[in-house]
Amino acid sequence: MKAEVYILGLFTFQGEEDENIVFSNEQLNIINTNIENQLGIKRVSQPSKWVNYPLNKKELMECLHTSACTITAAEMGYYHHRVIFRFILEGENLHPELRNIRQNLKSYSKEIIQKAIIQPNRDLKFIDFDIYPLFIIHEGLNFFMKKEDPVFSNDTTTMAFDITEPSKLSPIGKKYNIRISIPSTIIYTKAGVSDDFLKAMINSIYQYCLYEKKELNKQKKITEIGEGQLVKLWHHIIDTMGGRTLDKNIAKVSQTNYILAFAALLIAIVAFDIEKFTANWHYLTGSVKTFANVIFSIFH
Known about the structure:
The chain is of the alpha+beta class. It has 2 domains: 2-244, no CATH class; 248-299, no CATH class. It is 45% helix and 23% strand. The protein has 8 helices and 9 strands. The chain has helices at 25-39, 57-64, 98-118, 195-218, 227-240, 245-272, 274-279, 281-299; strands at 2-13, 44-45, 51-54, 70-79, 82-90, 126-138, 159-165, 174-180, 185-188. It has a 9-stranded mixed beta sheet with strand order 2-3-4-5-1-6-9-8-7, sandwiched between helices. A hairpin with a 4-residue loop joins strand 8 (174-180) and strand 9 (185-188). Helix 1 (25-39) packs across helix 3 and helix 4 runs antiparallel to helix 5 (227-240). The longest helix is centred in the C-terminal third of the chain and has 28 residues, at 245-272.
């Protein structure tokens, strides 16, 4: 099993209630130089405006306090008001440890942010930050294959729903199960999500959770991300990313039409020349397997 973990962070600055904080290129260079000095790591420039820092995987493994997985990639990216940590974890027994892993990665990320960004850049008005984790679990849909009591199921433990992301190459699309809760958002997938979906998900969390909380902080109304922000995130995903019942029904109709068209093609081939069909059957076995997999994916 593989898990992508993203810790999304947003900074708060002194006096930003009165004026927006916008850094110049010179100030950004100072911030990144301070990060380099504190972490002892050279920055890695990106084609985008982000500046990334590879993190010590051995040190991270010690922080996780688990042998259920290994960390295959770890990095931090910084740009203006945002910081993002990306961790890639792999392990056979990863899922039962997700709660502990989440807590330990949050603690690690908070420590790095305080040490490398907040403290050395106080003169640039950095004072605080909020973070929120996003998990993407590969092979995670296997957990939803078993029949459950619809009332006492995993889907009724939090805000959970299925969505289907349209595919550029296949009429079937990609199915995801999304679970939104106060500690994190978890996306269970077959083999990850597309780049476009990931970007949309990250920006949705920033807009409807982190920026929302930051605004409420200014009004001194809350101290943690709460259910109000999560409901807004849920509505946004449902409305714009394929989670509405109508969207899912359209996807199912498209899948059914595809199956019927494929079946009609096979029947036409048989009707056209049964002898040639039999002689060339070995060329069609791959298509038949695909057809069976499509049916299986629809009903599961």
